[in-house]
Amino acid sequence: MDYMKNYSLEGKVAWITGASYGIGFAIAKAMAGAGATIVFNDIRQELVDKGVAAYKEEGIQAHGYVCDVTDEDAVNATVSEIEKEVGTVDILVNNAGIIKRIPMIEMAAKDFRQVIDVDLNAPFIVSKAVIPAMIKKGGGKIINICSMMSEFGRETVSAYAAAKGGLKMLTRNIASEYGEYNIQCNGIGPGYIATPQTAPLREKQADGSRHPFDQFIVSKTPAGRWGEASDLGGPAVFLASAASDFVNGQILYVDGGIQAYIGKQPS
Ligand code: NAP
Ligand code: GCO
After folding, report:
1. Taking Cα atoms as reference points, which of 61, 58, 57, 158 lies closest to residue 101?
2. Which among 123, 125, 176 has a CA at the least distance from the CA of 150?
3. Is-contact 48 70, C-beta < 8 A?
4. What is the three-class DSSP state of 201?
């Protein structure tokens, strides 16, 4: 018996939110490689068009939709379009996210609210929109892209940590409430990954030296490097496949070991 068939996503429709590039794009690429039909969305048509072209370059016929995941009406309309044009969503990856790095006491409430809206309210809205059809179909997979900030805080990321901590518990609650319908909801907690979102933390300094935060993260990671978005593909395929049908409510950290390590003594 070909055991690897347990990891196949053949015949499945996977919707990765905010996946024109970055982690979402890498996860979508991996899922396509496992046989899934890829659906993605972004806020602006130009980004969706760029995304479709980028997927095409990888040999993937992705279905792109313009949709702001914080807008419940837009999300519901997009789900109807996807179901009409592609099929029922079997796998949802709540990937779309933003971060605002501002010291908490300097942060405007509207900025705090915007981060919570995209990083926590939106996964609620999109999950709520796809679960009824998953129940009708006999099951589904929801993967929430959490963060090390689901467990830790640090300066300037109060809104992001609050959102990602909440997303960890939303993950556990969806798992609890819908597990009986054969819906598994798990999280992936990436460590520090080299994408546009973390580019400011890796910027070369004026004197050509590496950003202090870059040096800090590399010294704190046993793997001695930043993660690549492609490092998340395998864990995502696992959590989207039948191989993880009895895994539910878990956060799978893909962090190169940073949470296990006290860190290397600075040379
Ligand atoms: P990114 O490069 O900033 O990409 C984020 C994506 O989300 C972009 O395509 C963005 O589209 C989209 N997006 C933002 N707001 C949206 C909205 N309201 N509706 C629809 N799409 C929206 O981020 P990333 O590094 O790939 O991160 C992806 C996810 O992983 C996020 O949830 C992030 O919090 C999480 N994460 C990242 C890291 C890391 O180190 N990079 C680590 C842990 C977790 P626009 O370009 O139009 O804004
Ligand atoms: C930051 C980074 C982190 C990473 C990620 C770590 O400013 O500390 O952006 O938040 O994005 O979430 O898991």
Report:
1. 158
2. 123
3. no
4. helix
Residue type at position 143:
I
| Ligand 2 closest atom vs CA 147 | 13
- The CA dihedral of 249, 255, 259, 262, to the nearest 10 degrees, is 170
What phi and psi values does residue 143 have, to the nearest 5 degrees? -120, 115
Q: Mark whether 160 is an active-site residue.
A: yes
Which positions ≥6 away from 226 have C-beta within 8 Å?
A: 192, 193, 194, 198, 202, 214, 217, 218
State the distance from the centre of ligand 1 to the C-alpha of 54, rounded, in angstroms. 17
Helix (H) or strand (E) holding 142: strand 140-145
CA distance 36 to 12: 5
Q: How long a stretch of residues is the chain?
A: 267
**Ramachandran quadrant class, 81 (left: phi over 0; alpha: psi -120 to 50; beta: rest):** alpha
Q: Phi and psi for 188 in degrees, rounded to 5?
A: -115, 130
Non-local (6+) Cβ contacts of 225 within 8 A are 218, 256
Ligand 2 mutation pick, 160, 252, 259, max ligand atoms within 8 A of CB: 160
Non-local CB neighbours of 202 within 8 Å, separated by 6+ positions: 194, 210, 211, 213, 214, 226
Over the stretch 34-88, which tens digit does the pLDDT of each residue have?
999 999 999 999 999 999 999 999 999 999 999 999 999 999 999 999 999 999 9
* Mean pLDDT per 10-residue section of the chain, whose length is 267 residues: 94 98 98 98 97 98 98 98 98 98 98 98 99 98 98 98 99 98 99 96 95 95 96 98 98 97 87
List the one residue out of 10, 7, 56 whose CA is nearest residue 36: 10
